[in-house]
């Protein structure tokens, strides 16, 4: 795992250098690729996989991006995080906000949808800048996740599936 982490660190460093050398923001790259700004940042952190359909758009947005890095971005990433990241003030405040509002958000999700959760896989996230009523800059975070209901674990359905798979599938 350590070798993989070192390799990921080197790739991320090279990707961030290519972005920095382009002079473009995540938002500008997002506009040119049709992705969200957060997803673009995830690609450059190797926390998301670049699809073959989007690769030409990224190539067009960053023509100086080396082909080997573009190919690396199309490989399934090792999604992980540094546990020390919580010490970074922005990340700490995001965590604090979710912990503070989380229970109320959960209750509203249950009230509006039923017993279930918001997916973090079928998920869109973006960061936007707006002016508040006082004229000061404000951060808008959008978490747009698919609702996933919990299922009742009915044993007859479970065992029927096992039997079907064992005896009826080639």
TrEMBL record:
InterPro entries: Cyanase, Cyanate_lyase_C, Cyanate_lyase_C_sf, Lambda_DNA-bd_dom_sf. Keywords: Lyase. It comes from the Eukaryota. Gene3D superfamilies: Cyanate lyase, C-terminal domain, lambda repressor-like DNA-binding domains. Its EC number is 4.2.1.104. It catalyses: cyanate + hydrogencarbonate + 3 H(+) = NH4(+) + 2 CO2. HAMAP family: Cyanate_hydrat (MF_00535). Belongs to the cyanase family. Catalyzes the reaction of cyanate with bicarbonate to produce ammonia and carbon dioxide. This is Cyanate hydratase. It comes from Rhododendron simsii (Sims's rhododendron). The gene is CYN.
